[in-house]
Write a structure and sequence with these properties.
Oligomer: single chain
Radius of gyration: 18 Å
Number of helices: 11
Strand order of the largest sheet: 1-2-3
Helix content: 25-40%
Structural class: alpha+beta
Largest sheet: 3 strands, antiparallel
Strand content: 15-25%
Shape: globular
Length: about 240
C-alpha cells in the first residue's frame, strides 16, 4: 500500500483517510503514527525517534528515572487524560462488564460498552507521541507552572513534576497546543474544567499561538477524522 502526502492532505492509494475515522484507540494509534511520520518528535521533551519508534534519548538530553525499558518505548499520550472524563460513563465505576466468572469496570469495560467513550479515547486531536516513562510519570496530573521546582528533573528535557500537588509544567513550545487540546475536548465532549484550569488554558492559548506544524497536524487529523480543532483553525476568533 503506497503512502502519499498531497499538500497538507493525507491519502493512501485508493482512498482518503476521511473515509476511515478511527473507531477505537488501537486504530487511532495506527493513524497517529502516520500523521507524525515526518515529524518524529516526542511531545513533552522533543526527543527524536525513528520509523521503528526507537527513541534517541540523547537528542533531547532526557535523563532516565527508573524504568529503562519504558523510557526507550514510544507511547501515545492523551493530552487530556482519560480519567478527566470518566465520570461521564457508568462503565468506569460500575462493574457492568462480565465474562465467565469475572466482572470488571474502568477503561477496558467502557471500550466495550460505550461507543462514545471509544470515540473520545480515539480522538486524534488529543493524541501525541511521548516517551513511555514520561507518559507514566505524568499520569493524570494537571498542568500548571511550578516555579518552586528546579529545572533539570529529567536532564535537559524541560519538564517538571510536583507529585505532592499532582501537577506538571510542560516546556513553553507545547503550552499552546496543550491549551487548545483542552479547550477543544471540553467543548466537543462537554467536559467541565475548573475555573483555574479554564483560566490557565485561555491564557496559554493567547500567549502561544499555533505554529505551522500545529496547523499541519490539525489538517492531517481533519482529513482522517472529519473535523478540525477550531481553536487552531479559527485562532484569532477564539483568542
Amino acid at each position: 500500500m503506497v503512502f502519499l502526502w498531497v499538500g497538507v492532505v493525507c491519502f493512501y492509494s485508493g482512498f482518503s483517510f476521511a473515509q476511515n475515522v478511527p473507531e477505537h484507540f488501537g486504530q487511532a494509534k495506527y493513524y497517529a503514527k502516520k500523521i507524525f511520520s515526518d515529524h518524529r518528535e516526542t511531545f513533552y521533551c522533543g526527543c527524536h525517534y525513528d520509523k521503528h519508534q526507537h527513541i534517541d534519548l540523547n537528542s533531547c538530553g532526557y535523563q532516565i528515572q527508573k524504568d529503562k525499558r519504558r523510557a526507550r518505548r514510544l507511547e501515545w499520550e492523551h493530552i487530556v487524560p482519560v480519567s478527566l472524563w470518566n465520570n461521564h460513563f457508568p462503565c468506569w465505576k460500575q462493574a457492568i462488564c462480565c465474562e465467565k466468572k469475572r466482572c470488571y469496570k474502568g477503561r477496558e469495560c467502557c471500550r466495550k460498552k460505550d461507543k462514545s467513550f471509544a470515540k473520545m479515547e480515539a480522538d486524534l486531536h488529543n493524541l501525541v507521541p511521548e516517551i513511555g516513562e514520561i507518559n507514566q510519570l505524568r499520569s493524570n496530573y494537571r498542568f500548571g507552572l511550578l516555579p518552586h521546582i528546579e529545572a533539570g528533573q529529567f536532564g535537559s528535557c524541560e519538564f517538571k513534576i510536583d507529585r505532592t500537588t499532582r501537577r506538571v509544567e510542560p516546556r513553553v513550545a507545547v503550552r499552546g497546543i496543550i491549551a487548545r487540546a483542552y479547550l477543544y475536548m471540553a467543548k466537543t465532549y462537554h467536559i467541565a474544567l475548573s475555573k483555574s484550569q479554564q483560566q490557565l488554558y485561555v491564557s496559554w492559548n493567547r500567549l502561544y499561538p499555533p505554529d505551522s506544524w500545529e496547523r499541519e497536524w490539525d489538517d492531517r487529523v481533519a482529513e482522517i477524522q472529519g473535523n478540525h480543532n477550531t481553536y487552531i483553525t479559527q485562532y484569532q476568533e477564539n483568542r
